[in-house]
Specification:
The chain is an alpha+beta fold. The protein has a single domain, classed as Glutaredoxin (3-Layer(aba) Sandwich). The chain has a four-stranded mixed β-sheet with strand order 2-1-3-4, with helices on both faces. A hairpin with a 2-residue loop joins strand 3 and strand 4. It is elongated and about 60 Å long.
Length: 134
């Protein structure tokens, strides 16, 4: 095998292992106590079920999801946007490693962590509790 092929395979393996590590860290937080989010909960502070949407203005997938996520805000006050540039403290506490990310909290416990883009239907089901999570 040639050196360029080995270098490409090594790069692909490195990227894949990085993605796997982010997924593992996110899933490991399920079932753990949620962190204090009272500063950003707003009208949803009294809701038992909340879905935190971690995004970045410079994230292309986040911009693509923005219309669907904003539409959900009209019917679900418990969808709480978190701009990672403004809330670095929450990124660290929730171990958010990529955007977009969704963290579903029920009561005081993390119930679900979703990485990457999601469908509007899935997010709506999560917000309403139809999936049995967040």
């Amino acid at each position: 095998m040639s050196w360029p092929a080995i270098a490409i395979l090594a790069a692909v393996a490195l990227l894949a292992s990085g993605q796997a590590l982010m997924w593992f860290r996110a899933k490991r937080s399920v079932g753990r106590p949620a962190h204090d989010t009272s500063a950003i909960d707003g009208p949803a502070s009294g809701d038992s079920r909340r879905l935190y949407y971690f995004f970045s203005e410079s994230c292309r997938p986040c911009r693509a999801m923005k219309p669907a996520v904003e539409k959900l805000r009209e019917t679900h006050r418990n969808r709480i946007p978190v701009d990672i540039a403004q809330r670095i403290d929450l990124i660290r506490k929730f171990a958010v490693a990529e955007t977009p990310s969704f963290v579903g909290v029920e009561g005081d416990t993390v119930q679900e962590v979703l990485l990457g883009g999601q469908t509007e239907r899935k997010l709506s089901r999560l917000l309403s509790g139809e999936d049995g999570v967040a």
